[in-house]
Structures are given as C-alpha cells and as structure tokens.
Amino acid sequence: MLSKKTKYGIKALTFLARREDQTPVQISEIAKAEHISIKFLESILLLLRHSGFLGAKKGKGGGYYLIKEPKDINMAKVYRILEGPIALLPCASHNFYEPCDDCNDETICAVRRLMMEVRDNTLMILENNTLADIAF
Amino acid sequence: MLSKKTKYGIKALTFLARREDQTPVQISEIAKAEHISIKFLESILLLLRHSGFLGAKKGKGGGYYLIKEPKDINMAKVYRILEGPIALLPCASHNFYEPCDDCNDETICAVRRLMMEVRDNTLMILENNTLADIAF
DNA sequence: CTATTACCCTATCGGTTTAGTAGGTTAGTT
DNA sequence: AACTAACCTACTAAACCGATAGGGTAATAG
C-alpha cells in the first residue's frame, strides 16, 4: 500500500506542474488545495527539494517551485525517493537488494520469482511515465 | 512491501505443490523447512484452509494438503486472501474500492491514474500465474 | 535596517499494524 | 483410551505511520 507521504508528494508535484507560471507557491497553499497537513507536507517538500526536484525561495513571496520540466521528471525516481524500493520484497529489488534470512536458496524461491516479474513490470510503467504524462 | 504472512503463505503452498505425493504434511515440518515460526504459520495455513486452498487431517499422520491442482490455483486469489488489495491505493482498487477523503476529484487525480496503471499490470501478472507456474 | 515572511530542523506522540508467543481445546487415529 | 495434531483465543513487543509542536534561520520588502 502506498504511503500518504508518496501520495501527497506526487499530488504536490502535480499541483505545481499544473500551474501556468512557475512562481513560488507557499506550502500552506498546496496543503489547503490538496487537503494535506501543513507540517507533514512541509517535510515532504523538503525531501523533494533535497532530491533535486524542487527549488525553494525564502522570505516574503517565497515558496516552492519545480526545478525541472514536468516531462523531465521520471516517476520511478520520484517513487524511489518518496516510497523506497519498487519491489515488494527486498530480495527482488535492484536498488535496495537484501537477501531473505529465511530463504534456503533464493534462485528457486517461487515468491521471489513472482515478485520479480511484478517488479519488472511496475518499474517499466514508472520509468515510462513522467510528471507531464500523469498531470495533463 | 509484501507482508511476511503473504510470503510465508505462498512458500507453504509452494512447498506442498513440490511434493510428489499429496499426503498430509504437519505444520512443524513446513515451518522447519521454510524457517517459519510454527504458530505464525499455523494461523496462515488455517486461513488458507478456510479459503478453500488447503485441506486438513487431524490426529496421528495428520497435517495439511493441497485441495486443488497447483495449475488451478490462481495467484491473484491467493494474493488477495493473504495480502488484501492488489492496488496500491484504495481508490484504485476493484475489490476493495474506497474513495480518498482528501481528494477533490478522483477523475483527474494523477496519483490514482498512475496507480491504476500499475494495478492493471500487476493484476494481469497475478491472474496469469498459477501455483504450478511459479513452483516448477 | 528591521520586521516579516516562510522555509528549515528536531523532537515527540498516539494509533495502528505486524510478527510472534502462550496456553488451552477439540477432534480424529491408532 | 491414549495420543496426536489441528484448531481457537488472547496477549505482547516492536516497528511504523501520520501528524503535531515549537522554535531557528535566512531572505526579502519596505
């Protein structure tokens, strides 16, 4: 199940992408429009800024803004930053691989086999979608 | 992320499917082979029995056994019983649909759009895989 | 220069879920 | 009748999630 963090993060990115001009938007404005707790959203936007998706301007008239074109924002990257691994099992993950401690031989593990198939497919979808694709 | 419940459940089904004869297998034997806590596995197997995948025999020489052919056990059904919804968001689910309380208009929600695409694809994979497909 | 604005950071907390544990009960087999 | 293994209920520790509180800091307008 997708965490609210990821859901809110993508919603915020979408909100910014759908604006005409790219002037900074206050956290409170996004929070109000998308019905998100201000403080929680704050931490999410901060993370997205640290990850290179957003820029921030301080002081009066400040706020957050997209630093890249929506069509250049890859949803797989966004997902990994916000949610973590795309795979449903650590042993089926590329970027976050970890062996199972209960598994005798992961090469014949049926669960892993199935979850890797799911993973490959989900990854493909996320890689092939940009923010522009889902926002417009 | 997949719960251990689901992981253990599928591992147990696989273990049973891979046996030559279909004589009952004790919980403790499966638990030992797959490194699963006996009591936890017990509750999982009970659930799988109530859901029509397993049969059980009591008393000496008793245990659990597959009630259907592995090729007739659909992984989407197994997943839904053990893990719950396939969709990553309730608003993107068929069998467990629930609207988001924070969403203004779900028809234009970018997150939902993306998650429905993921859902459709994951569902297809699970529907097209039987226990026989992943066990052998 | 200074007050304001709004981002930035740390800490905490209640609620829920997860995984595992304990102990006893019931029913079938030998 | 004795034994065995599934069945059922209840409980607990730990982890995680979402939210909240409160203050610090930097940039900007005037």
Automatic annotation (TrEMBL), chains A, B:
PROSITE patterns named among the record's database cross-references: HTH_RRF2_2
InterPro entries: Tscrpt_reg_Rrf2, WH-like_DNA-bd_sf, WH_DNA-bd_sf
Keywords, comma-separated and alphabetical: DNA-binding
Transmembrane intervals: none
Keyword Cell membrane: no
GO CC annotations on file: cytosol
Superkingdom of the source species: Bacteria
GO MF term list: DNA binding; DNA-binding transcription factor activity
NCBIfam families from the UniProt entry: rrf2_super
Protein name according to UniProt: Transcriptional regulator, BadM/Rrf2 family
Species: Flavobacterium fluvii
